Amino acid sequence: MDIDGIYRVSGNLAVIQKLRYKADHEELDLEDGQWEDVHVITGALKLFFRELPEPLFPYSHFNRFIGAISKQMLLLSLKLLPRTIDYNEKVSYMRDLVKVIMYGDDNRMSVQNVAIVFGPTLLRPERESTNLAMHMVFQNQIVELILNEYELIFS
């Protein structure tokens, strides 16, 4: 968690692809020395999020989140997320990102930096529109708010 640039610095793409292949097709041993570069692991995790068929925060909620950009409305919308099986995974992923932020003095990953890295990955529209730049600003703001209010939202 205290590695400089965790999630921001890219790992070796060839090694990330090798890790991805092993995770998809073979038994993966993360203790194996070839995976010691934390940037490879975090790069693989970011790739995993990008390639999910539906983002961590579902397409069906995207417009509601954008429309509810005020803090009160967004917190209410988040509380209304369905408590599906993957809900616990959401909580776990977000908790890990909050831990990264807690080490911000060491890894230089502030809440804003984490939101910039993960905003477009965790929350996106089902179909891209001409408002890509505006959506990106909102996505970052929403993820930043979720991270700042993690305890309130997921408790």
Q: Unreliable segments (pLDDT under 50, ≥5 consecutive)?
A: none
As a percent range, the share of helical residues equals 55-70%
Tally of DSSP helical segments: 9
Count every beta strand, where a strand is a DSSP E run of 2 or more residues.
0
Largest sheet: none
What form results from the Cα inertia axes?
globular
Any idea what the radius of gyration is?
Answer: 16 Å
What class, by secondary structure content?
Answer: mainly alpha
Write down the secondary-structure element order.
HHHHHHHHH
How much of the polypeptide forms β-strand, as a percent range? under 5%
User: What is the terminal-to-terminal distance?
Assistant: 23 Å
What's the rounded overall pLDDT mean?
83
Describe this structure in words.
- The protein is mainly alpha-helical.
Short description:
The chain has 155 residues and is mainly α.
Q: Keywords, please?
A:
single chain, 155 residues, mainly alpha, 9 helices, globular
SSE blueprint:
Elements: H1 13-25, H2 38-51, H3 59-67, H4 71-79, H5 85-102, H6 104-107, H7 111-122, H8 132-148, H9 150-154
